[in-house]
Fold these 2 entries.
Entry 1:
Amino acid sequence: MESKGTNLLKAIDESEKRYYTLFYNSPLGIVIVDIEEKKRAIAANQKWLDILGYTECEVYKNNMLTLSPELQPDGASSAEKLHRIIHKYKNDGDVQEFEWQFKKKNGTPFWTKVIWTGINWYGADCVMIIAHDIDQLKKQEIVLRDNMLELEQKNEALKAYITSNKQLKDFAHMTSHDLKEPANTIKGFAQLLKKKMVDKMDNDEHEIIDTIINISGNMTGLINGLLHYSNINSEKIKIEEISIQNLLNQTITELNALITSQNAEIIFGNLPSKVRGDNIQIRQLFQNLISNAIKYRCQKRTPVITISAQEQNDFWEFQVEDNGMGIRKKDFSKVFQLFKKLHDDPTLGTGIGLSTAKSIVENHKGEIWLTSEYGKGTTFHFTILK
């Protein structure tokens, strides 16, 4: 018959077996640290070893600081932070919960959520560290935070863009009023002077008056172009189904004076019957590209402009091809820049037309580009969603 003492020893033995089973097989990393003796681990479960990548012997040769990076992610040194944790534990003995970054054997840092609590381990005053692996969670948190920061920056950039567009529109309306009137007045006085003094001026004086009239006209054109460009970039587009042939016929009618004066020939190739877009803006787009082709014609040949399109997966790719001057490849990047002109002749545009064309295409979520051979002609390509 077993004594009460024997039964007690068996009960203790069974209890310890259950404890060790729970300790070593826990899904959380657990390590027992002697905070009085060099802060080294004196027991660690398998999960802890798996997380660190160390063997059991290697873990026991290290302490909590050698298993941690020099600095924690908040910028505090691991040594200072650990000192504060131990000081707090010795003063009040409360259970502490905090995030801590350890360092794997290969040097890779990883995040844990630590529960730090006191434990009497075979008579020694120790702490039990229960570490929940939150490395992936923290990495996702960092990515999310970075994405939020990037989104915030883009939002600020968008606000600045909207503000600048509003300022541009306000400025354009101001200039249309404050600058067009004096420009028109100068042109009017110059024309009146030329009419009254036509028989009294020599050739040089006639040339000066004509220059004043031309420059005044160009200034009015520049102001109108700037106003129109600001409207294109600030007004909401109205998407509707557009008959391309009707739109092009209307465009040709509006450009009739320019086309007739230069003997230009407009040829229609393969075209879709309809597209979806803003009628006014798409018409302006074709106006700008056709008038640009005529303005930069080759003086040695009659302007021929061919308008065609090719069907792609989700969009139509239009081409406006001319046989004009052509553009040097080094100047391709300048073509769509606002106020950028490739020619010194003041009568050849304002440097706004192609910038406006680019804005219209982008308003319709399309792209615009060019191909050209200098001296032979240029083709402008742009896409419009079906």
Note: The two ends are 95 Å apart (CA to CA).
Entry 2:
Amino acid sequence: MHKLPTRLRVVQSSLRRAVPALNLLLTAALLCLAPALLSRAQEAAPAASAGATPVAQLNDVVLTQAEFLRRCEHVVGGQSDTAVGWVAIKDWFQQALAEQEAVKRKVVPDDKAIERRVLALRKQWEFRGVNFHDWLAERGRSMETLKADVRTQLLAENLMTEGIEVNPSEAAVAYQSNKAAFGLPERIKISRITAPSREVQSKVEAGLKKGSEFDIVAREHSADGYALSGGQVLDPIDVSPGAQGQLEPEVMAQVLKLQPKKVAGPIKVGTYWVWVRLDEKLPARYPPLTDVEDLMTANLKMQKAGPKKLEEAQQRLVALQKGARMQVFRPEYKSVLNLLQPKDPAAAPAKDAAKEPKP
């Protein structure tokens, strides 16, 4: 699984902690937008109406758009076991309120800002060897839905960092101090063989001693998940001191002593033995400042804002939320208002007392 670097996640996590009202439920948004990303099933019958548009087909059974949207609305998941429709309405209220506030304060992100952020995100994925469009497609997303998500995030950032500026020289200095967070550490590519018993250990040793290829011996005898690939571990392994769990310490200590294409082993690890081959050394590398300047600037703005300004932005939105005119017309979703506009428990007794007849 490909993860964003720590520094790239700072803004996102800061937004979620500082302003819960702006936390975007991506699942709901993507599920509801997904029909636009799916082509019509070629063998499906012609649609009689928009609701009958096919989204998917299993044998002779068609999943229509109407049924798809019904499932999107009522699917239950997550820690709260709450229907996506309920969460979508809650998020809509909160995002629409933030949008109105951003318009009022003239901090709505423009198209250039959105394109700049999308480009910075794409550069980060591509720097790690991931095709950005493939990554989106594998998750049922499109560039349009990504831009919508980025716009929501930038709007939140602008509300919380209003009036704060970061000049290019500040970003350059911060980049030099933190570029490791955006880059890739020194890594290695290896192949391995795991022998679970002395009997298998003997067979592996015999095969390697007589000159059999490492990958052939791995396929024949290795007892780990890499046997089918001839022992090759597909993902590069981080060798920085802070890396944890990617390789047994006993094996890591030996492989770091090797030259490329050399083999070490058998290495005793608990109840099994390992042979490891160093296939390639990958030196640390870093993206240029121009690729990450937008992300670095956003992070610096959040740092400059500090907890006090973030809290002020949160309280301002909460106050607007309480005073807004909100209505929900679907009975099963009306409880959204109890969350967004909870009634003051002290107000009810006071109102009742005012109605009591005077003695």
Note: Residues 18 and 311 are 7 Å apart (CA to CA).
